[in-house]
Amino acid sequence: MIEKTEIWLTCKDLLTLSTDTNTVFDGKAVRGFLGNMYRNRMEFHGHKGDKLVYKHPLIQYKIFGSSALVIGLKEGSYLLKAVPNLEYLEIYRQKYPILKQNTCVTSVPFGLTDGTFRYTFSTPWTGLNEDNYKNYLALKDDKDKIYGLFEKILIGNILSMSKSLGYVVDDKIRLKARLNENGTARVKDGVELMAFLGDFETNFMIPEFWGIGKFSSRGYGTVRCINGGNPQ
């Protein structure tokens, strides 16, 4: 079990922002807002000085319609518990008044399990780096090999997450994936990554609303369990 803290922020007029396809899944601006509040804690913004910290984030930021979600695990969870009630979020230089703020602190199961859990991506997964993208294009006509490539990358995502959370994976991770292209995601000016949606089954328990893969701190790759959390 690990500690998870969720802060849901329902904001006036935020839905207008989220209708822009380039920002609907991207919590970068929310991260910038809270990261500026807590500049001395790299967990909030992912930087050490002027350098990016290359590790799986312990605090993630997401936008769902008119609500923003800030979620933390382990050390990230402890830090989020200290966030006060906020009057507004400032996103792209515009202030969005907060109508409601809910904070939920729970202990959640995490790690290898004897059962199999099925997850779906509720926000696009942007898991391909330059090399994997080339492999993807080379295999594009062979569905089985494509799925095999996705499975290998997703297992790597889970291992990276486990390392960041101090969890030792002492047995084999089993995983079956069925993902399909879902356009592209503009992750920064001039840079778009291929995005995918779909589901996967694995013997590893991942907390609800947690993201895996590239740019997960900004809301990409967010998973939901779709078999009720019951082993199959």
Describe the structure.
The protein folds into two domains: 106 residues; 116 residues, Alpha-Beta Plaits, CATH 3.30.70. Helices cover 25% and strands 38% of the residues. It is an alpha+beta fold. The protein starts with a strand and ends in a 7-residue tail after the last strand. The mean pLDDT is 90. The strands form three sheets. The protein has a five-stranded antiparallel β-sheet. Strands 9-10-8-11 form a four-stranded antiparallel β-sheet. A two-stranded antiparallel sheet has the order 2-3.
Notable characteristics:
globular; single chain; Alpha-Beta Plaits; 232 residues; five-stranded antiparallel sheet; 6 helices; 11 strands; alpha+beta; 2 domains; four-stranded antiparallel sheet
